[in-house]
Amino acid sequence: MALRKLVAGNWKMNGSLASLVELDLILAAAQAHPSVDVAVCPPFTLIAPAVARVPALAVGAQDCHGQSKGAHTGCVSTAMLVEVGARLVIVGHSERRADQHETDAEVQAKAAAAISAGMVAIVCVGETEADRDAGRAMAVVESQLDGSIPRDGTGATLVVAYEPVWAIGTGRTPSTGDVADMHAAIRARLAGLIGGEGARVRILYGGSVKPDNARELLAVADVDGALVGGASLTAAQFVPIIEGAVAASG
Ligand code: PGA
């Protein structure tokens, strides 16, 4: 079953009020190509101004807390995100799993909190280069899925992003065959975890998606979109990736 593709930008700790001008052309591309979904996830401080500037564009966050409120200095709840217009949230990105030592259980709690707040949770998984070299890439990703996927997730509320850690920000990508194998394994695991809804959950590929490789990666079976870091920061790079998703959907 071909699912509607989602192209989501992850600005990470980049951008400023001035860079929100990029969103004008990104929204224009999203509106010109209604056959795909487009979203941008800027840093927390830019969410409200982004929503104010382009209310028709899906804007998301890059993290949230698993609890609704409380004594958690520096954290942001899903209710806070919803209040300022965020519709999605990335959880369990490998940079947070590494830098903030986030566990699968914490990622699962964050995803569950996002879903109960009415948001779409984008749960990230992916192996390190050492995992792949040791032949355990699939086992690592399956274990992350087992620990991180909220069992009430549906095709409407849950998205999985497969991002090999060694492909993020490096300009390297797996072969399309390796992407196909991993996405098929993720699809099968989702069926085991959430049943029939697993067939409706979009599985994004992430890691060095660029204008020149987007169409090929997005045409791979069970690749239902892309999570884009560096190339989402400018419309000049991000719009051709949206167009690649459209072409791959055709
Ligand atoms: P990249 O990042 O596109 O810059 O490799 C992807 C991501 O980390 O989501």
Structure, explained:
With 250 residues, the protein is an alpha/beta fold. It has a domain at 1-8 and 86-208: Alpha-Beta Barrel (TIM Barrel). The chain contains ten helices and eight strands. Strands 1-2-3-4-5-6-7-8 form an eight-stranded parallel β-barrel, surrounded by six helices. The model has no long low-confidence stretch (mean pLDDT 98). The site of 2-phosphoglycolic acid has 13 residues, from strand 8.
Question: Main traits of this protein?
Answer:
250 residues, alpha/beta, TIM Barrel, eight-stranded parallel β-barrel, 10 helices, globular, binds 2-phosphoglycolic acid
Q: pLDDT below 50 for ≥5 consecutive residues: which ranges?
A: none
Number of strands: 8
Bound molecules: 2-phosphoglycolic acid
| Most strands sheet | 8 strands, parallel, barrel
Shape: globular
- First CA to last CA: what distance? 14 Å
Q: What is the average of the pLDDT values?
A: 98
**What Rg, in angstroms, do the CA atoms define?**
17 Å
CATH class of the domain at 1-8 and 86-208: Alpha Beta
How large a portion of the residues is in β-strands, by DSSP E? 15-25%
H and E order: EHEHEHEHHEHHEHEHEH
CATH fold label of the domain at 1-8 and 86-208: TIM Barrel
